[in-house]
């Protein structure tokens, strides 16, 4: 695993020079990594095309959102894209598939993806493409076979760069509860889910499979991470989602629109604060405004920021952003902490599309959480584990890392990272200070 807190010289949480972990890292990689994350997704290939707004309207879609379409509509839509030669890219997608892939690229380590895959795969087919576009560090051995197609996500990009999704589900929701491996969840650093998983036809097994996975995660005290997907899924029934978060979820990832649908707050800081009533840690991306994080720390171990104090709906909200995050259940005297960061380098000069920028930020957060477990299992007596922290780095540092990864996604075409961050950025500090 590439170690996020160990970026060259600058640590907020110093470790001793002869750290056994460093010595261990000098040895050849062990294939069977002790640390991993696991996620469930609807297996989807993204089919990207440039269309005008009339196209979106003609097929009954909603600009900027993700809607599920029937087979006949999907066929007509696909035929029109082919006939008019509008398809520009086809690559593996799915919000959690993207996140697992990106995690594996960043950490150079194992993630496990649960979902469905065709039993019969022919060269050039969508399933073939999906497998070929997924990191070799993403373990696909637990996918459940289906006799039928995986899903297609028509990713329609308007003239203004806005993206609209039309989902043709195929067999993507046929994941059954008995296909969820308890041991894989029990040993994971996090179970990662999306609100899209409940968007199914009556009788489809995906929601039940998801609940089975959540049951295992709770049994083994593994944090459940939920990313909200699209504001419409939330706006359908915000109270249901609030109850769901309170009961099942530890870490929440969302953008500012989803945050508004969930909490009624349009200010991402206030929305994140509200969400802390239900979960332990919040990542709220806000497009050109950057991103916010909110979490809990242990009062006794809080650390003051060295950055300027920021004004906002909560005055000087970033005061303790140099603290590490803890799950509420592990805090003796919990203190709420917040952080914000503006887009890295002000954002890329030209953004072709923002697809997957949020998924990238979440992958970075997962990397930091898993690195903490990795460090704990290698150096259990380290002073870094005097408390039962959730992250390895401070909240401010996690924000930087997440933000940097979003930039990397914005700077390329696909939502899946084609490579990790540049080696010289093993110290993120340097990348930031040298601007
Ligand atoms: N127009 C922009 N200019 C600068 N940075 C941007 C812009 N849009 C996005 N970003 C960066 O990407 C991060 C995530 O963006 P955004 O809030 O759009 O994610 P999202 O809506 O969750 O994306 P997706 O659902 O496609 O993964 C932001 O925190 C910011 O750092
Ligand atoms: O219904 C859905 N289920 C799972 N993933 C989805 C759905 N709609 C869109 N995306 C995925 O979101 C990613 C960008 O964040 C895209 O790659 C797309 O495949």
Whole-number mean pLDDT: 91
Radius of gyration: 21 Å
Count the helices. How many?
14
- Ligands and ions found: adenosine-5'-triphosphate, inosine
Strand line-up of the largest beta sheet? 7-5-1-11-12-13-14-15-17
Secondary structure tally: strands: 18
* Termini separation: 27 Å
Q: In one word, what is the shape?
A: globular
Low-confidence sequence ranges:
7-17
Q: Describe the sheet with the most strands.
A: 9 strands, mixed
What percent of residues are in strands? 15-25%
| Class computed from helices, strands and strand pairing | alpha/beta
Structural account:
The chain has 435 residues and is an alpha/beta fold. Helix content is 32%, strand content 20%. The protein is built from 14 helices and 18 strands. The strands form four sheets. Strands 7-5-1-11-12-13-14-15-17 form a nine-stranded mixed sheet, with helices on both faces. The protein has a five-stranded mixed sheet with strand order 3-10-9-2-4, with helices on one face. A hairpin with a 5-residue loop joins strand 9 (151-157) and strand 10. The radius of gyration is 21 Å and the shape is globular. Mean pLDDT is 91; it is low at 7-17. It binds adenosine-5'-triphosphate and inosine. The site of adenosine-5'-triphosphate has 20 residues, from helix 12 and helix 13. It is an enzyme of class 2 (transferase). ATP binds at residues 285-290, 358, 403. This is Guanosine-inosine kinase.
């Amino acid at each position: 695993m590439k170690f996020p807190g160990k970026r060259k010289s600058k640590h907020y949480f110093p470790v001793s020079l002869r750290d056994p972990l460093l010595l261990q890292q000098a040895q050849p990689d062990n294939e069977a990594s002790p640390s991993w994350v696991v996620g469930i997704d609807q297996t989807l290939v993204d089919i990207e095309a440039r269309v005008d707004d009339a196209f979106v309207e003609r097929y009954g879609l909603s600009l900027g959102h993700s809607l599920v379409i029937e087979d006949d509509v999907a066929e007509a839509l696909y035929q029109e894209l082919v006939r008019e030669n509008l398809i520009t890219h086809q690559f593996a997608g799915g919000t959690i598939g993207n996140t697992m892939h990106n995690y594996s690229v960043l950490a150079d380590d194992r993630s496990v993806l649960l979902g469905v895959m065709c039993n019969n795969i022919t060269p050039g087919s969508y399933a073939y493409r999906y497998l070929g576009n997924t990191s070799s560090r993403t373990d696909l051995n637990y996918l459940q076979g289906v006799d039928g197609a995986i899903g297609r996500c028509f990713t329609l990009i308007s003239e203004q760069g806005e993206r609209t999704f039309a989902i043709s589900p195929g067999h993507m929701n046929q994941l059954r509860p008995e296909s969820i491996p308890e041991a894989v969840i029990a040993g994971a650093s996090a179970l990662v889910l999306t609100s899209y998983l409940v968007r199914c036809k009556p009788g489809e097994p995906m929601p039940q499979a998801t609940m089975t996975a959540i049951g295992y995660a709770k049994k083994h005290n593994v944090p459940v991470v939920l990313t909200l997907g699209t504001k419409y899924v939330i706006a359908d029934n915000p109270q249901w989602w609030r109850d769901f978060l309170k009961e099942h979820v530890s870490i929440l990832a969302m953008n500012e629109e989803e945050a508004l649908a969930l909490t009624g707050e349009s200010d991402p800081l206030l929305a994140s604060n509200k969400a802390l009533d239900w979960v332990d840690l919040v990542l709220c991306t806000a497009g050109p405004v950057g991103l916010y994080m909110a979490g809990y720390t242990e009062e006794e171990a809080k650390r003051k920021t060295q950055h300027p104090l920021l004004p906002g709906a909560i005055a000087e909200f970033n005061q303790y952003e140099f603290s590490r995050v803890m799950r509420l259940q592990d805090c003796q005297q919990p203190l709420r902490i917040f952080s914000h960061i503006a887009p890295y380098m002000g954002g890329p000069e030209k953004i072709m599309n923002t697809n997957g920028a949020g998924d990238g930020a979440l992958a970075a957060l997962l990397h930091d959480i898993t690195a903490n477990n990795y460090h704990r299992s290698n150096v259990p007596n380290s002073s870094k584990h005097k408390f039962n922290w959730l992250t390895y780095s401070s909240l401010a540092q996690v924000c930087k890392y997440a933000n940097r990864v979003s930039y990397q996604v914005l700077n390329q075409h696909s939502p899946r990272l084609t490579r990790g961050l540049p080696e010289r950025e093993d110290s993120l500090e340097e990348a930031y200070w040298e601007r």
